[in-house]
Amino acid sequence: MSNTSTPKNANNKLPNQQHAVVINEFGTPDVMNYQDGIDIPTVGDNQVLIKVAYAGINPVDYKTRQGKGWGADNIRKDKFDYDKPAILGFDVAGEVISSKSEQFKVGDKVAALNFAGGCYGEYVAIDAKLLAAVPESITLKQAGALPCAGQTALQFVEFADIKKNDHVVMNAPAGGVGQLVIQLLMAKITEDDIKVTVICSPEKYAKLDQLIDKSKLAGWIDYTKDDSFSDLQADVLLDLVGDDAGVRALSLLKSDGHVCVLPSIWVDKLKEAGSDKNLTIEGFAVTPSGQSMARVLQQVADATLKLHIQRSYPLSEVVKAHSELQKGSTFGKIVLEVTA
Ligand SMILES: NC(=O)c1ccc[n+]([C@@H]2O[C@H](COP(=O)([O-])OP(=O)(O)OC[C@H]3O[C@@H](n4cnc5c(N)ncnc54)[C@H](OP(=O)(O)O)[C@@H]3O)[C@@H](O)[C@H]2O)c1
Q1: pLDDT score recorded for residue 226
Q2: CA end-to-end distance (rounded Å), the chain
Q3: How many other C-beta atoms are found inside a 10 Å radius of the C-beta of residue 78?
Q4: pLDDT tens-digit profile of 94-147?
Q5: Is the pLDDT of residue 77 over 90?
Q6: How sure is the predictor about 4, in pLDDT bands with cuts at 50, 70 and 90?
Q7: Confidence band (pLDDT; 50, 70, 90) for 5?
């Protein structure tokens, strides 16, 4: 992967404009407009221009669209304050069509988690340090589903620092991040003799057969039915839901248990609710990197991890895709098909 081309591309085949999904304000899904005539981004030093094949969608996308969190703060500061539209989208898989990087050349198939946004378009410029090559055995559709969920799952389980013989409870094992986290925990059942209990609906519990050998689980809690959770004296809670669902799960832990909260805005609420138990409660934030992306892709290529794609929508149907993800009951991932 060494050839470097100019961003303008020697063959002049690059168009100047693209279709993309833009927002000019925050709000409900219909603030997103699929438009033609949007400028193709400029390629900076050590960046590549990617022709986007698939863009995964994540809860952080709709939270940003709603005007919440760091994603929205960045858009306010960098775009809306200058009356410019913003292009959402942090997950991408596609082909390099122009490169200012020594590492990646035109024609390389790549994937990345790009917190600068811009992936809901036909073309996006991305820092080479965020990219990883997509192994031949992985389709761009699979690769497009993996950047945020995959990097988060690997880093979150490491962050949790689970010890030998720990009893670990996790909620949302069938969601985008959860599917990968539960598979990583199943490996630890064998390697580190941990016990794993999951919290999910009956529908999702039935579907977990597609991912794991459920006979190895220590237990399942049906959050839709059980009024209160029994005291499991568990060591670790991996909370992928937060809010009241996270608070309710605190009763499962022993008094000095460890709680890792993925939607970290809920850390303070959990700290307050669990103040009688001497718990350690920590929020987590994923750090995007090419190395982390490569590790995820390799584990999927090796078939040690898999991620179900619930549905793919054309980029022009992004409003439907966001509305579906926002229901909060996805089995795996929803992706946008851009130019595949
Ligand atoms: N801090 C970070 O760096 C970071 C990175 C990635 C994601 N996140 C956050 O982590 C969260 C999970 O992300 P995701 O992509 O996995 O979301 P997702 O795919 O939308 O999660 C959907 C899953 O949540 C489950 N669920 C919903 N309510 C539940 C409850 N009360 N108890 C148990 N399960 C419940 C659903 O299963 P049921 O049908 O069984 O309810 C569904 O399978 C999001 O809030 C996201 O923003 C944070």
Answers
A1: 64
A2: 23
A3: 13
A4: 999 999 999 999 999 999 999 999 999 999 999 999 999 999 999 999 999 999
A5: yes
A6: very low
A7: very low
Residue 7's pLDDT band, with cuts at 50, 70 and 90, is very low
E strand or H helix at 284, and its extent? none
Q: How many CB atoms lie within 10 A of CB 85?
A: 16
Count other Cβ atoms within 10 Å, centred on residue 203.
Answer: 11
Residues 6+ apart with CB under 8 A from 157: 181, 184, 185, 238
All domains of the chain in start order, with CATH: 17-146+307-337 (3.90.180.10), 150-283 (3.40.50.720)
Give the sign of the dihedral formed by CA 310, CA 302, CA 157, CA 129: negative
Q: Is the overall model pTM greater than 0.85, yes or no?
A: yes
Query: How far, in Å, is the centroid of ligand 1 from the Cα of 294?
Result: 23
Q: Which of 262, 269, 284, 310 to mutate to test the pocket of ligand 1 (most atoms within 8 A of CB)?
A: 262
Cα dihedral 194, 200, 202, 206, rounded to 10, equals -50
Quickly list DSSP for 298-315: HHHHTTS----EEEEEEG
What whole-number distance in Å separates Cα of residue 265 and Cα of residue 59? Answer: 13
46, 82 in Cβ contact below 8 A? no
Ligand 1 pocket, CB under 6 A = 58-60, 148-149, 152, 171-172, 174-178, 199-201, 203-204, 223, 240-241, 245, 262-264, 284-286, 325, 328-331
Rounded Cα gap, residues 226 and 11, in angstroms: 63
